[in-house]
């Protein structure tokens, strides 16, 4: 969604007229989600709702001027975005959006302007926040309300403008208190505002709980300011969808879909082919190089980085992994914290667990599981194999069904396989064990001792052949049947 790093609006403007804070309301429970988890921790686009809002806010003002108001499950909510470095204000009882700003009174005294955002509305962009803040600064009202026009405004607060056709607002009426006439108004309150801090705290105590929810509604500040002859302005958002909130599971799904599609579109604009963008799940931080092809039902998650000219086939799930240029992932691969060098081939159905490092041009085939393994350049483990805690050199062939026995029930041990080793099928390598350069291991061997370079190791029962045994068995069976035994 939002681009990284760049501040869309220089903070210098605020420097002229005083300081701007951003307050993010995130204390609510989210009753409509019917969830045991707090609303702002529900995820869209691969991240909690609140994290998206924090990211947008910290691109507009310095992180120490961002305050999240938390209450319901405060510890969990705090932990989810603590790494950002923002401040937290506690609203121990959630008595409404107006009350959320009451608890912020002391913290915000040092500022001239506060931009208020909703922790449950994650599509807001830094550009829009800046626009709201700058509009407010240049017009100097007590309150600026970001609004939008929705074909179906059901559920939102309606904006009652003054009848003179200007930008001034008389009141905001919540859905539950709106008359039939007011419900027809399609201009809605986004829940994003800019306030003059002085005006807000001069009048905030006039809020009351005389409404259907028995809460202090921040939206009532509009009418309170009007009574006090202070100006309240409306600013229409350029992209109404930025306002959407995740109040219900259906709304969360809708927002998620919009974010996923936007991410796919950004990647496609950078030269990535995505066959069925509606069916690709790509997290915001993921990077993909040009001419890489992403097939339907792929998930690219977390801090994944994929090179150029790769093909990621259907049903691959790649998390926090790095994949080099020209690599082919056949269908159904699962990668977690893995590194794959250029031109490797994986799958179908390879499982690369954390610490897997696959060398240039290497092959990892079907039903091969790797963990904490370095597989060298051009090496192959093509079928039905487990490789864990192993150092494997270049040009090594790991036969079908090979197992590194890395765990003795208490400790993990390492298997070292040097360059050019050939491990026959169904070998069992009991770690710690070392196979020297160019050595051979016979099929079905259980290797418990080191194998020197260039040697052959065979560790299995010697084959016995009993001539005529099968014929004799069949004949004696037939004889028994004749005698009726
Ligand atoms: C609010 C607005 C409504 C607007 C809509 C836009 C009010 C009364 N109504 O309604 O006009 O159209 O947003 O999305 O403000 N919160 C707290 N502390 C509380 C209560 C809520 O921090 O005591 C937080 C919530 O966690 C949430 C945000 O404030 O992040 C908004 O609250 P919510 O209950 O979702 O308000 P809406 O019903 O959506
Ligand atoms: Ca809401």
Provide keyphrases for this structure.
binds uridine-diphosphate-N-acetylglucosamine, UDP N-Acetylglucosamine Acyltransferase, domain 1, single chain, 11 helices, 23-stranded parallel β-sheet, elongated, Spore Coat Polysaccharide Biosynthesis Protein SpsA, Chain A, seven-stranded mixed β-sheet, 2 domains, 485 residues, 21% helix, alpha/beta, binds calcium ion, disordered N terminus
Any overview of this molecule?
This protein is of the alpha/beta class and 485 residues long. It has two domains: 20-243, Spore Coat Polysaccharide Biosynthesis Protein SpsA, Chain A (Alpha-Beta Complex), CATH 3.90.550.10; 261-457, UDP N-Acetylglucosamine Acyltransferase, domain 1 (3 Solenoid), CATH 2.160.10.10. Helix content is 21%, strand content 29%. It has a 23-stranded parallel β-sheet that branches. A hairpin with a 2-residue loop joins strand 2 (43-44) and strand 3.
Write the layout of secondary structure elements.
Blueprint lengths: L11 H6 L2 E6 L17 E2 L2 E2 H9 L8 E5 L3 H8 L5 E4 L6 H6 L2 H4 L4 E6 L7 H14 L3 E7 L8 E4 L7 E5 L6 H4 L3 E10 H7 L17 H7 L4 E5 L12 H21 L3 E2 L5 E3 L4 E2 L4 E2 L3 E4 L3 E2 L4 E2 L4 E3 L2 E2 L4 E2 L4 E3 L2 E2 L4 E2 L3 E3 L3 E3 L4 E13 L4 E13 L4 E2 L4 E3 L9 E3 L4 E2 L4 E3 L2 E3 L4 E2 L4 E2 L8 E2 L11 H14 L3
Parallel strand pairs: 1-4, 1-6, 4-5, 7-11, 12-15, 13-16, 14-17, 15-18, 16-19, 17-20, 18-21, 19-22, 20-23, 21-24, 22-25, 23-26, 24-27, 25-27, 26-27, 27-28, 28-29, 28-31, 29-32, 30-33, 31-34, 32-35, 33-36, 35-37
Antiparallel strand pairs: 2-3, 6-10, 7-10, 8-9
Uridine-diphosphate-N-acetylglucosamine binds next to helix 4 and strand 10.
């Amino acid at each position: 969604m939002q681009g990284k790093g760049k501040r869309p609006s220089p903070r210098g403007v605020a420097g002229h007229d005083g300081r701007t804070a951003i307050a993010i309301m995130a204390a609510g429970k989210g009753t409509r989600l019917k969830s045991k988890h707090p609303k702002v921790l529900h995820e869209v686009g691969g991240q909690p709702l609140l994290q998206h809002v924090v990211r947008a806010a910290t691109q507009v003002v310095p992180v120490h001027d961002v305050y999240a108001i938390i209450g319901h499950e405060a510890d969990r909510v705090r932990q989810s975005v603590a790494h950002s470095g923002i401040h937290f204000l506690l609203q121990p009882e959630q008595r409404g959006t107006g009350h959320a700003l009451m608890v912020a009174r002391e913290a915000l005294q040092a500022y001239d302007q506060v931009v208020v955002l909703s922790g449950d509305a994650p599509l807001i962009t830094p550009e829009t926040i800046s626009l709201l803040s700058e509009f407010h600064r240049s017009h100097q009202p007590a309150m600026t309300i970001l609004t939008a026009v929705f074909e179906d405004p059901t559920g939102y607060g309606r904006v009652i403008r003054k009848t003179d056709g200007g930008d001034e607002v008389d009141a905001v009426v919540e859905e539950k208190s709106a008359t039939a006439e007011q419900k027809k108004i399609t201009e809605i309150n986004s829940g994003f505002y800019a306030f003059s801090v002085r005006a807000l705290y001069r009048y905030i105590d006039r809020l009351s709980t005389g409404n259907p929810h028995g809460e202090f509604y921040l939206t009532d500040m509009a009418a309170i300011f009007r009574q006090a002859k202070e100006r309240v302005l409306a600013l229409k958002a350029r992209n109404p969808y930025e306002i959407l909130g995740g109040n219900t599971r259906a709304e969360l799904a809708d927002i998620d879909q919009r974010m996923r599609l936007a991410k796919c579109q950004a990647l496609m604009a950078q030269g990535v082919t995505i066959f069925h963008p509606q069916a690709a799940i790509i997290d915001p931080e993921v990077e993909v190089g040009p001419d890489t092809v992403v097939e339907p039902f792929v998930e690219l998650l977390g801090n994944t980085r994929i090179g150029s000219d790769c093909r990621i086939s259907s049903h691959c799930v790649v998390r926090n992994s790095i994949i080099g240029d020209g690599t082919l992932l056949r269908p159904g691969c699962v990668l977690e914290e893995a590194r794959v060098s250029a031109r490797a081939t994986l799958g179908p159905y390879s499982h690369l667990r954390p610490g897997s490092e696959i060398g240039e041009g290497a092959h990892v085939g079907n039903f091969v599981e790797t963990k904490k393994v370095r597989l060298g350049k051009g090496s192959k483990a093509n079928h039905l194999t487990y490789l864990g805690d192993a150092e494997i050199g270049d040009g090594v062939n790991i036969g079908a069904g090979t197992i590194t026995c890395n765990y003795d029930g208490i400790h993990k041990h390492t298997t070292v396989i040097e360059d050019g080793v050939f491990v026959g099928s169904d070998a069992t390598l009991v770690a710690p064990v070392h196979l020297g350069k160019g050595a051979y291991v016979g099929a079905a061997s259980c290797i418990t001792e080191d194998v020197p370079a260039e040697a052959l190791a065979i560790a299995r029962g010697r084959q016995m052949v009993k001539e005529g045994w099968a014929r004799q068995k069949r004949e004696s069976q037939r004889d028994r049947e004749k005698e009726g035994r």
